[in-house]
């Protein structure tokens, strides 16, 4: 009989956001008259920007004409998009990244999940706690973790992100090979300064470690002193891979497009002590397992880099940041401590001693508002909930009024 990958048995029964969706569906079935407001999963609600829609339509028209039709595209993405990304997101900010170091994909979830395939099974991994669950779950699936005891997997080096360290991961006490970092952070909404990132880049260079840097929320940064890319830090190109997404930046959660930057100078060790290019490995992986993002979607993403596109996405993200501000002010009125929300669409709220799943249930049942229980992001998240700013202004204002009523 065919045998299963036993590592899957170590996972929680379902993925965090599927679990929440199931609970909310159940609640809605039992309470059909309550209009549930979803501030749980970070899914955008506003339409694609007009410049993106126009380019998307044009891309479809190109596919409708033999003269402009495209079949299989390059697995790494079309040059027209990779060049715009390199010029605008990196070179214009002083980061030495070229178009052929960019791999266009269908989103940061897949790339952050798949990238671990390139590494040996017995590497030591450092993962912040709390954290976006994909990093940990994909390493569990790959067999890099031991048993799950007291809310944690053996063999993982957890980097506690707690009030005492301003929710910023600290350098590990024992040596590690691979480090996951995410800024602006999901779920806490905290940001890392240049000095914070410099210490990680220095650590990685000194210890021959690699950083997987998830920058999916960089377009929410308004503080000009904060780095938007890890490549703004000297030497990062040798030791860091960066993941980006058009999902939250330009409303692509349902359209799917993102990219991963793998600098050519990044190298990893073979058993014989020689090194190999990480760029070459990811290129080999992508060309074998991936056939690229559809042409109209890449045309749509390209429009993000036009003058109108930039203005429109600026307005889109500003709208969500204003929602975050309303949520933050409500938390203050309610007497809750929180972080995030200023350069990030997530607000991380201290539940004042409540367990996060109890707080989730309370808000769902008494206010009809969905949040994300912090415990779903790791043990250190258990006393917190995450509130997402991704919804209409009207719904956010309504949700905050309901929370005030439910918690008074
Ligand atoms: C989240 O809510 O953390 C994100 O929307 C999940 C994702 O981007 O996959």
Termini separation (Å)?
58 Å
Cα radius of gyration in angstroms: 21 Å
CATH architecture of the largest domain: 3-Layer(aba) Sandwich
Instruction: Let me know the number of strands.
Output: 17
Spell out which ligands are present: D-malate
Count structural domains: 2
Highest-level CATH class of the largest domain: Alpha Beta
Query: What would you call the shape?
Result: globular
Instruction: Output the helix-strand order.
Output: HEHHEHEHEEEEHEHEHEEEHHHEEHEEEH
Low-confidence runs: none
Task: Please work out how many helical segments DSSP would assign.
Answer: 13
Subunit arrangement of the protein? single chain
Task: Estimate what percentage of residues fall within beta strands.
Answer: 15-25%
Protein name: LL-diaminopimelate aminotransferase
Pfam families: Aminotran_1_2
InterPro entries: Aminotransferase_I/II_large, DapL/ALD1, PyrdxlP-dep_Trfase, PyrdxlP-dep_Trfase_major, PyrdxlP-dep_Trfase_small
Enzyme class: transferase
